[in-house]
Amino acid sequence: MQKWIMSGLLFIACAFAIVLIFTLPGKEEVAQDAKPTMPKVTLNASAAEATMKANCISCHGDQLEGKIGPNLQKIGGQLTDEQIFTTITKGNGNMPSFKDKLKPEEIANVAMFLAAKK
Question: How far apart are CA 91 and CA 63, in angstroms?
Fold first, then answer.
């Protein structure tokens, strides 16, 4: 009886290992998540402001003066557009990730808009 139990457990462990092999992300996917690539976009200030009003003002204030989140009025003097893109995409500390809420092009447009604020 113990042989049947051990055989069953071994079979379940092997099946689980095979499932994990095919479902876990590969090195390329992990690297892409670690450093998202900013798409090439042309800055559209009005679209960036609309996106920010819909998603950012609750934490950063309607003038980006900072409320719960930090002041972003001169963030371009501290961070590049790619750094801002990565922060918006992945989140940082108390800031949530927006990769599932906004398109990469929208995030890039906002990042370029904020990077111009120096």
Answer: 21
Q: What is the DSSP letter of 71?
A: P
Q: What is the pTM of this model?
A: 0.72
Both 19 and 54 in a single domain? no
Say if residues 101 and 92 touch (Cβ distance below 8 Å). no
Angle between helices 81-90 and 104-115 (to 10 degrees): 130
Q: Are 82 and 114 in contact (CB under 8 A)?
A: no
Planar angle of CA 114, 30, 97, nearest 5 degrees: 35
Q: Rounded CA gap, 95 and 93, in Å?
A: 6
Nearest residue to 104 (alpha-carbon basis) of 4, 26, 33: 33
Integer-rounded Cα radius of gyration of the chain = 22
**pLDDT by residue (tens digit) across 83-105?**
999 999 999 889 999 999 999 99
For residue 106, the domain's CATH number is 1.10.760.10
10 sits in which H/E element? helix 2-23
When divided into structural domains, the chain yields a total of 2
